[in-house]
């Protein structure tokens, strides 16, 4: 566990530097935590002995953090509770299957989560259609 904590401490300024170089706005702690569990998974897949509880714990934190950030973008607020429940469950299932290297299940749960995102956030086409309808309505009521 100490190695994971040290990794988070070391990766935090790396994420800050990445943000400065590429003009991004990644949360420093979120990026460092994600970077830590990613390198731990790679190390485990490469044959190094890792305690799977540690990346699992960090992955769970990432799922909750991603959910928190994405739920701010949901347009239809009635969907919020369904989003939370479904995304957290799918996120945990995705994380578990990634940790266990179960690629087919990982692909299935990831695809479902992505589809849920399209539904919850609305497609660009839907937003454009609403804008067009608004403009048309304004033009009809103009004169």
What is the topological layout?
Layout: H1 2-22, H2 28-45, H3 53-71, H4 80-99, H5 103-121, H6 124-140
What are the segments in which pLDDT stays under 50 over at least 5 consecutive residues?
A: none
Task: Indicate the proportion of strand residues.
Answer: under 5%
Which term fits the overall shape? globular
The main β sheet shows up as: none
How many alpha or pi helices? 6
Computed CA radius of gyration, to the nearest angstrom: 20 Å
Distance between the termini: 69 Å
- Given helix and strand content, the structural type is mainly alpha
* Strands, total number: 0
N-to-C SSE string, H for helix and E for strand = HHHHHH
The mean pLDDT is: 85
The helix content, as a percent range, equals over 70%
Query: How many domains is the backbone divided into?
Result: 2
């Amino acid at each position: 566990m100490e190695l994971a904590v040290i990794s988070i401490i070391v990766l935090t300024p790396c994420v800050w530097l990445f943000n400065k170089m590429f003009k991004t706005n990644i949360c420093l702690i979120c990026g460092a935590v994600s970077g830590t569990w990613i390198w731990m998974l790679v190390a485990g897949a490469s044959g190094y002995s890792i305690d799977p509880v540690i990346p699992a714990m960090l992955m769970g934190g990432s799922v909750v953090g991603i959910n928190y950030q994405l739920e701010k973008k949901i347009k239809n607020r009635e969907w919020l509770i369904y989003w939370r429940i479904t995304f957290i469950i799918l996120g945990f299932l995705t994380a578990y299957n990634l940790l266990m290297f179960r690629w087919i299940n990982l692909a299935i749960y990831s695809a479902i989560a992505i589809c849920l995102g399209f539904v919850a956030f609305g497609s660009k086409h839907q937003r454009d259609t609403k804008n067009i309808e608004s403009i048309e309505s304004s033009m009809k009521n103009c004169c």
